[in-house]
Amino acid sequence: MSALTKADMAERLYQEVGLNKREAKELVEAFFDEIRAALSHNEQVKLSGFGNFDLRDKKQRPGRNPKTGEEIPITARRVVTFRPGQKLKAKVEAYAGTQS
Amino acid sequence: MTKSELVELIASKQPQLSVKDVELAVKSLIEHMAQALSQGQRIEIRGFGSFSLHYRAPRVGRNPKTGETVKLDAKYVPHFKPGKELRDEVNDSLKAGY
Prior knowledge:
- Chain A is α+β, with helices and mostly antiparallel strands.
- Chain A is built from three helices and five strands, in the order ααβββββα.
- Chain A has helices spanning 6-17, 21-40, 86-98, and strands at 45-47, 51-58, 61-64, 71-74, 77-84.
- In chain A, β3 (61-64) and β4 form a beta hairpin.
């Protein structure tokens, strides 16, 4: 099964919500662009029914180049983490139940 | 930012659509994504990241209240891997002092 893409999502908005093709495409772009913009301003994003995008600041820590074994520090950084909500977790667990 | 704030923000930049239209569309989008994952389908958004399922092996757990052991079945959990552009933008915000 191929991955779900922005084009698939726009098609669904066209089919089911009744946006025209251009509006549907713009809306999908805007959805991801605005989430990205918020996260890039260190703002958490909470989508009820789906999950939360959180930001975590990591301190510098010692690392190693796995090829050469050379010690190099991993610099301090900010990372995005996704915490799925209860509803999404429950839906996905149900999938596992239908396998095997 | 919450879902309703996101809806307002998108609507303010799409004057041809009402807040109601945007609200419906955002709900439908989220529903579509949740549905895909619940069927084991990956989601790939260039520049943003990808969502997939990670397997969790069955294990024996313990009820922390009673100390009773419980068998926990294998399951899948949703996982998000940020794309390079999102990773870089977020990390740059740290350097920019946000």
